[in-house]
Design a protein that fits this description.
Blueprint (H helix, E strand, L loop, with lengths): L2 H14 L5 H13 L3 H6 L7 H15 L4 H5 L1 E4 L2 E4 L12 H13 L4 E5 L5 H9 L4 E6 L2 H13 L6 E5 L10 E6 L31 H13 E10 L5 H11 L4 E6 L5 E8 L1
Parallel strand pairs: 3-4, 3-6, 4-5, 6-7
Antiparallel strand pairs: 1-2, 7-9, 8-9
Length: 279
């Protein structure tokens, strides 16, 4: 079986199971088996796979057909053009969360930002991405999960950021040793009713997905803590789910009546990031 034949077969199998973007998924799994870049893989369509490689590849395809995310199968996920180690202890970084990084960088480029806190850091993708772009900024990354922080630590070590990102275990803002200039948070915001409909349900940790009855339990707690953990001027960036804009903005307006609030949609047009400015 050649590379082209293997990709075609896997693509058809994945498409028949309604796996989103089956061509990309097939490539990711075959690249993992062959340890090749995408360019190298696609430049050798007639390369003949060994029987062992075919068997290993089809086993991975079978795992994907059973619902296991490709990121957990390969142990890797790209985020903001960087490669991150992931495992089932952490939420798989989503492309829409890159908007948080972009908004944080916009603030850092126009304001005096010396400290950032990434709350619910998971694998550390946001904290690492910001640290690589902002070498002079001190970054705290908190998570309630010991296992998640171990994954984040691996990613910090991979990029040589162990001394620049401070990993802190605890709930929300509690572990922060002092107020910071910018708080950024991608917290669980899936409602209880929607939880079983998430396509990675049963694989990703529910702790990183479940936001309670209205999806806002964790966001609500962080917003109530934020006043004491933000310097003035200070900035808060929150990722939210579809349909949560009105409730989150009302919450922030009630807590910080003089603050500026903006909402930025993602590439799909869904309101995704709420930005709060405290002066």
């Amino acid at each position: 079986m050649t590379v082209k034949q293997a990709l075609s077969r896997a693509r058809e199998m994945l498409a028949n199971q309604n796996i989103e973007d089956p061509a990309l998924e097939a490539e990711l799994l075959l690249r993992h088996i062959l340890r090749k870049s995408r360019a190298d893989l696609l430049s050798e369509p007639d390369h003949e796979l060994s029987p062992a490689e075919v068997e290993a590849f089809l086993k991975l395809v079978g795992r994907r057909l059973n619902g296991e995310p490709a990121a957990y199968i390969t142990g890797h996920r790209e985020f903001y053009s960087h490669d991150f180690y992931v495992n089932p202890s952490v939420l798989i970084p989503r492309p829409e969360s890159e908007l948080l990084v972009e908004k944080a960088l916009q603030i850092a480029c126009s304001q005096s930002i010396s400290t950032i806190a990434d709350i619910g850091t998971g694998c550390g993708a946001i904290a690492v991405s910001l640290a690589l772009e902002l070498p002079g900024v001190e970054i705290y990354a908190t998570d309630i999960s010991t296992a998640a922080l171990e994954v984040a630590r691996s990613n910090c070590q991979q990029y040589g950021l162990t001394g620049r990102i401070y990993l802190l275990e605890g709930n929300m803002l509690d572990p922060l040793p002092r107020p910071v200039d910018l708080i950024i948070a991608n917290l669980p915001y899936v409602t209880d009713a929607e939880l079983t409909r998430v396509n990675t349900f049963g694989f990703e940790p529910s702790l990183a997905l479940s936001g309670g009855p209205d999806g806002l339990d964790k966001i609500r707690l962080l917003c109530h803590q934020a006043g004491e953990k933000l310097r003035r001027p200070g900035y808060l960036l929150l990722e939210i789910g579809q349909g949560q804009r009105k409730a989150v903005c009302a919450l922030l307006q009630g807590l910080f009546p003089l603050a500026g609030i903006e909402v930025t949609p993602d590439l799909s047009g869904i309101d995704r990031v709420v930005s709060l400015t405290l002066t």
